[in-house]
Design a protein that fits this description.
The structure is a homodimer. By secondary structure, chain A is of the alpha+beta class. Chain A is built from nine helices and eight strands. In chain A, β6 (184-187) and β7 (194-202) form a beta hairpin. Chains A and B meet through α1, α3, α4, α5 and β3 of A and α1, α3, α4, α5 and β3 of B. Chain B binds a DNA duplex through residues 1-2, 4-6, 25-27, 35-42, 59.
Chain lengths: 247, 247
DNA sequence: GCGAAGAATTGCCGCCATGTCAACAAAAAG
DNA sequence: CTTTTTGTTGACATGGCGGCAATTCTTCGC
């Protein structure tokens, strides 16, 4: 079996850098790999050009922060916190405009994790606490990830209310409708009396990084109001990040 | 600038695999990269031999699960949420035992991000909301990451109170004391009237993944009480995860 | 501020590692 | 069971690669 030596050596350089506590010099890599420093330079330049390493200001190299994310199809904590901070104003604007509460969530395995929220000022309100986790198949934020992001429909779709969609077929059709609509809907599927809409937030590479949504009690959110909220949420987003995946 | 084509192509194969939802066939990689399938075979065999890809039973390839671990300076969201859920009972036990509030935080760039908390039942209490971010150099949770984790001392250490340590020398000495003690201390350095202690939580590989701490108002937390809280926090932790790095 | 030492970059050249092709083997599909 | 598709392997030609040396840049010590 023939292996490619240049590829092996490049990956060895990457492995070496990953094992070091801090950024490394070019000569360190050359010594560690037992190659000429000009070759080490070519290796490192290639890793940088391909996005697997970065070179900092002091001419040192370290593995790219995107390396893990690239491998796991997941974003770094810093990217997630950056989105949370960038979209805070949009959450506040949504609450100001709609009177209902607004949430932001990320995907964690088969669940969504609420990372920010702005409460409604009204006495009757929805409240998903920051730090809470919810399922994908019966929440608007979760359906956003299933429709527009990398989430996979979990093996089981337990019923939370009489309105929960629990068959693969019903959910697949619902996700098709969601994609066509541009925003997802939870119509009292997760909790009785609560209706929500949500839509994706994409990163600069066009991957879905978060979902943003608005929730209200069903006594206030009529059918017409639900779709109005959906359009408002679909149009919201001026946090300096892309709203839609690039063509 | 000359890049190494074999290395580029190998990394392109890795990137392609990372972007696919499931394992890929050899011919998929060959088509995606526009190379002959025998070359794709050599590329993939090399990635497998170097530990960056694995081949499953159906002759398909996917990025190695260790890819992220090999290169990462960060944990996945699932690992973080697993820690949060595993340590919830410990937070509650700490509050029951001490009467003060307890927090859990992760490292995000040059800050800590509060991901869980249990409030003190007393009317005078500390409250860092879940989702809040705080600096490293003047919080107990942050100092835990600086002492026991991968955090680097930021370039600037602004004063938040008259007690904030703001020189590199003073902070380096404080972090040495913290390592010797086994828990970190914030002695009204971040906010007047608030004292905190914290200690690291490690993952199975011995990397620090989170910090857990207890905070109280200084009118209640005397010098002696502060160290007592430190010892309690240092001894806490029965969430099924390691408390200390492996030898 | 300057000179020395160390680190990094760049151009060149020889050669062997690599890419392609074709034949063959194995697995999947009908 | 047969056909098609996918994967493997050996051979060959060549251009991509590795090392060397010169040059440039950065850091360090005085």
């Amino acid at each position: 079996m023939r292996l490619l030596q240049s590829l092996s050596r490049g990956l060895e350089a990457l492995t070496y850098m990953s094992a070091q506590p801090g950024p490394v010099r070019l000569t360190d890599v050359a010594e560690a790999l037992g190659v000429d420093k000009s070759n080490a330079a070519h290796l490192l330049k290639t890793l940088v050009a391909m996005g697997y390493a970065v070179q900092d200001d002091s001419r040192r190299y370290r593995p790219s922060d995107k390396l893990a994310a690239r491998a796991r199809t997941e974003h770094t904590l810093e990217e997630i916190v950056a989105v949370k901070e960038a979209w805070r104003a949009t959450l506040e604007a949504l609450v100001a405009e709609t009177g209902e509460c607004a949430h932001l969530a990320v995907l964690v395995g088969p669940r969504v994790w609420y990372i920010d929220k702005v409460d409604s000022p009204l006495p009757l309100k929805v409240d998903h606490p920051i730090g809470a986790l919810s399922p994908l198949h019966c929440t608007a934020l979760g359906k956003a990830f299933l429709s527009f992001g990398a989430a996979q429909l979990p093996e089981e779709q337990p019923a939370f209310t009489p309105r929960t969609l629990t068959t693969r077929r019903a959910l697949t059709e619902e996700l098709e409708r969601t994609r066509a609509r541009g925003y997802s809907i939870d119509d009292e599927e997760f909790a009785p009396g609560i209706r929500c809409v949500a839509r994706p937030i994409y990163d600069a590479d066009g991957a879905m990084i978060a979902a943003i949504g608005v929730s209200g009690p069903s006594v206030r959110v009529t059918d017409a109001r639900l779709h109005e909220l959906g359009r408002i949420v679909a149009a919201a987003g001026e946090g300096g990040l892309q709203k839609e995946p690039p063509q």
